Amino acid sequence: MIDWTRVQTLKDELGAEDFVEVVGMFLAEVEEVIARLRTNVNHDNLEADLHFLKSSALNLGFSNVSELCGSGEDAAAAGKQVDVARILAAYAESRDAFKP
Description:
It is a single chain. The chain is 79% helix and 0% strand. The chain has 100 residues and is mainly alpha-helical. Helix 1 crosses helix 2 and helix 2 runs antiparallel to helix 3. It is elongated, with a radius of gyration of 14 Å. The model has no long low-confidence stretch (mean pLDDT 92).
């Protein structure tokens, strides 16, 4: 679910104080997209939203979320159905397990 090695690497690179700030910015930006996906999935923007989530999740070590978003991004690009609920659930689970 979470790549703790990536989390530690990021923490070592940034330092503890900056790490907390980056995590806060990450969660705030991601929560905006998550809220949009919860309330109104705009299929015109879905691929871009999933790309943003994929990259953001990967940077912070939310590996499962990143993988699901990558698959969803590919599906959206191909005009196929995307299991947004599964992505939202994986994000919530990862966020809850993440303790910086």
